[in-house]
Design brief:
With 314 residues, the protein is mainly alpha-helical. 75% of the residues lie in helices and 3% in strands. The chain has twelve helices and three strands; from the N terminus they run βαααβααααβααααα. It has helices spanning 24-51, 58-75, 78-87, 94-127, 132-135, 138-150, 153-164, 181-187, 193-226, 231-260, 267-292, 295-313, and strands at 11-14, 91-93, 173-174. Strands 2-1-3 form a three-stranded mixed β-sheet. Helix 1 packs antiparallel against helix 2 and helix 9 packs antiparallel against helix 10 (231-260). The chain is globular.
Length: 314
């Protein structure tokens, strides 16, 4: 329209939780503790799965890769959030925003795929135990991990380019804690229908397909476990899956709620809260869930702690 302000956006403002100025110190402390716990907890899982011979199995190989992925994923958002709170400068350049979104998407796809791979691993271990060493050999495990990490990169780069090819005029305020798809589409000018359909198509490919694989795997697993004659055997089989099920529920549950909720005046606030679940809380709870509910990991930690104390005393 004539007379409309057509100033091209060259940077964005991440509003985050700026509407709560008195809580900035508390938020900084909370997010700092969460980030450090993510680094330490997931880093510890990576270390013990590498040095403990009892954890040299496909399940823990996938878990170590998932923990490394969680560290990378949170490092895309949390450090920037902490810097923004300290400096009170919430501006982010157009290029930096594109890079942040690109890495979030590139790292988000393998997170879904690895959870699917981990479910398939449990399916083979429980439903086809005699063929497990043959099917899940080291070469296959490496191929599954490399495939999970790389298969979505071209698609996610193309989607990032598509989003930032939209015209951005006037408002540059993103009511979010990091650069994400929905907040960017809200302030983009022009018709975004094609972009929204593209987002849902990619979400179906890299989100729904692994989720359906997980559901199918656990239907088969539960069916097999219920046929076991021994109560002890059933309990042991269920216990090897419980940690993975909890992580899957937390991760996919928060994503489904975030991206399938109807557009409304409150959806922006809800987006910020629910995005914390799959970008912050899932990586934080991942090592806790696998540590507290996994006897092998607990035993490995007990072995590691005396060694660390012995080295300190020496």
């Amino acid at each position: 329209m004539e007379g409309e302000n057509r100033t091209i956006v060259v940077e964005f403002i991440l509003l985050g939780f700026s509407e709560q100025p008195k809580l900035q110190g508390f938020l900084f402390g909370t997010f700092l503790v969460i980030y450090l716990s993510i680094l330490i907890g997931n880093g510890l899982i990576i270390v013990i799965t590498k040095i403990d011979p009892a954890l040299q199995t496909p399940m823990y190989f996938f878990l170590a890769n998932f923990s490394f992925l969680e560290i990378c994923y949170t490092s895309v958002t949390l450090p920037r959030m902490l810097i923004n709170i300290v400096t009170k400068n919430r501006n982010i350049s157009f290029l930096a925003c594109a890079i942040q979104l690109g890495f979030l998407l590139i790292l988000g796809a393998p997170e879904c795929l690895l959870l699917g791979v981990m479910a398939y691993d449990r399916y083979v271990a429980i439903c086809k135990p005699l063929y497990y060493p043959l099917i899940m050999n080291y070469k296959v495990c490496v191929q599954l991990v490399v495939g999970s990490w790389t298969i979505g990169i071209p698609v996610q780069i193309a989607q990032t380019y598509q989003i930032f090819s939209l015209p951005f005029y006037g408002s540059n305020q993103l009511n979010h804690i990091f650069c994400d798809l929905r907040p960017l589409l809200r302030i983009a000018c022009g018709d975004t229908f094609v972009n929204e359909m593209s987002i849902y198509a990619v979400a179906m490919l890299f989100g729904m397909v692994p989720f359906l694989l997980i559901v199918w795997s656990y239907v088969k697993i539960i069916s097999t476990i219920l046929k076991l004659p021994s109560t002890t055997g059933r309990y042991k089989a269920f216990s090897t899956c419980s940690s993975h099920v909890m992580v899957v529920g937390l991760f996919f549950g928060s994503i489904i709620i975030t991206y399938l909720q109807p557009k409304s005046s409150n959806s922006e606030k809800n987006d910020k809260i629910f995005s914390l679940f799959y970008t912050v809380l899932t990586p934080m709870f991942n090592p806790l869930i696998y540590t507290l509910r996994n006897k092998d990991v607990i035993v490995a930690l007990k072995k590691l702690l005396p060694k660390c104390r012995g080295e300190k005393s020496n």
